[in-house]
Amino acid sequence: MDILRFITAGNVDDGKSTLIGRMLYDTKQIYLDQLEAIESSGRVNEDGDIDLSLLTDGLKAEREQGITIDVAYKYFNTDKRKFIIADAPGHIQYTRNMVTGASNSNLAIILVDARKGVQEQTRRHSIISSLLGIPHLVICINKMDLVGYDEAIYKEIVADYTRFAGKLNAKAISFIPVSALKGDNIVDGSDAMPWYTGPSLLQHLEEVPVSADFNLETARFPVQYVIRPLTAEYHDYRGYAGKVISGTYRKGDKISVLPSGQHSVIKSVEIAGAELEEAFAPMSVVVQLEDELDISRGDVIVKQENQPEPVQEFEALVCWMHNKPLKPGARLLLRHNAAEVRSVVKEIQYKVDVNTLDHLEDIDQVQLNDICRVLIRTASPLLLDTYDQNRSNGGFILVEETSFATVGAGMVAELAD
User: Fold this and answer.
1) Which residue, 276, 290, 304, 416, shows the most beta carbons closer than 10 Å to its own?
2) Looking at domain 3-212, what is its CATH homologous superfamily?
3) 311-415 CATH pick, 2.60.120.10, 3.40.640.10, 3.40.50.300, 2.40.30.10
4) Worst-scoring range by mean pLDDT, 142-146, 374-378, 387-391?
């Protein structure tokens, strides 16, 4: 059974938390003690039903204000698929939280209030989803019950969003009219909207193809841990544990270990002590090699016929996540998979207007939640792919050297020659 990771986003009060709560409630994924806690809270909707948004608004400040601040992760499954949900905040000041939740998502649900139509945050979250390479967008036009389930209003919003979506890089965009409050088209279809003949939201999530979203051509296996039991039973055992972030690995594959350039052949690929015929993204496995090589955390096992070139200078899109502005010359730690190196931001090339995708040049600094393109140089080589070619190997984070706070999330745009 495969896994779909998706994020919900949109403007404040568009009903993101209620939509997720409704989906969990209608699929019977709520524990009894959770339901009792919600009922005892005393918060109800205007029609007297319990407030399902409380299922995802986990912080005290969120429950008090009735808004989402942090990214809330929820898990559920159906007979067809497992799901990991990231419920992202809608406020502009929490855009960095939305970026965090979107970085590992296969699909984004963008909610639009049927009464208000496409808003600035609708465009902002759609553009961020596009910049982060999320291939599938689902535009849920919510609160249809408050506009009398009017088909004309739905069509007007679809047309408005479609005009804007020409700027986006999404592979597929779908539209679904829903009422998260009433449950229309969330899990089951809606008798109130007979004019809509497409799938419900859950049906769409169960059927959207995601296996093609993984890069299965470019093999990258960053070593997380070297396993040496040194017991009587496993005295000579040497395994390399990690996650296959892209590509496939099989017994007999000729591999190279970078950055050292050593060569060997895969002796076995294992998971939980059992040998596999094949490992592919995003599986976590243990690889054994025919030769005893000097390999440590941060090294990358790749196929000999498809090796990345080590680089120390590259251009990247960065979402800045710190109150202190980013300026040229900033020295930061850069973490890429299991590797960590010192780096310097040599220049800020432009800032992205996240409402229009225009490039704002002659920028001497960027502020919290800004997205910019920068030139970065590292103290030692990294094994990178560009984000559009290999999303799993093209992302990184920037960390302040003294406080170790994460201050930026980056996507490699272009490698230096």
Assistant:
1) 276
2) P-loop containing nucleotide triphosphate hydrolases (3.40.50.300)
3) 2.40.30.10
4) 387-391
Across the chain, mean pLDDT equals 85
pTM of the entire predicted model = 0.79
Task: Report the alpha-carbon distance of residue 11 to residue 70 in Å, rounded.
Answer: 15
Residues 254 and 277: their CA atoms lie apart, in Å, by: 15
220-303 matches 311-415 in fold: yes
What is residue 161's three-state secondary structure? helix
- CA–CA distance, 293 with 62 (Å, rounded to integer): 51
Rounded Cα–Cα distance for residues 213 and 136 (Å):
9
Rounded distance, CA 357 to CA 124, Å? Answer: 9
- Contact between 9 and 90 under an 8 Å Cβ cutoff? The reply is yes
3-state SS class at 301? strand
Using alpha carbons only, give the angle 176, 187, 154 rounded to the nearest 5 degrees. Answer: 20
pLDDT grade, residue 22 (50/70/90)? confident
